[in-house]
Specification:
With 116 residues, the chain is α+β, with helices and mostly antiparallel strands. It has 6 helices and 3 strands. It is elongated, with a radius of gyration of 15 Å. The model has no long low-confidence stretch (mean pLDDT 83).
């Protein structure tokens, strides 16, 4: 049985780029994570959620930072969630997002070269 790793799991088990080259499957596994962050709106959303007081933010907290509709913001948040960068929890009518700091730390280790 072959288990596919998520992008976040792949990043977590990779050595820093400065230590050894990525294999083709490792590189392909990490691409969805990097693609999710490669969009300026999603990168800003990630930053807003991660730096928000308490480490989490409601969609209602994020709408005013963009000249975009709430459904568009929600779509970008969904992409970040599906990539494994955000956790989400529905409370009443609102969805709250929390940055998966371990995913960000693993990505920083992969790119920055410092072992955790």
């Amino acid at each position: 049985m072959h288990l596919e790793l998520t992008a976040v799991e792949t990043v977590a088990c990779c050595s820093p780029l400065t230590r050894e080259p990525l294999s083709e499957p490792e590189a392909e596994g990490i691409v969805p994570l990097l693609k999710a962050l490669a969009d300026p709106v999603r990168l800003r959303l990630m930053s807003l959620v991660a730096s928000h007081e308490g480490g989490e933010a409601c969609v209602c907290d994020l709408n005013d930072a963009f000249d975009l509709s709430q459904p568009t913001i929600s779509h970008h948040l969904k992409v970040l969630h599906e990539a494994g960068l955000l956790d989400r929890e529905k409370r009443g009518v609102w969805v709250y997002y929390r940055a998966r700091t371990e995913a960000l730390e693993n990505l920083a280790t992969l790119i920055g070269g410092k072992e955790q």
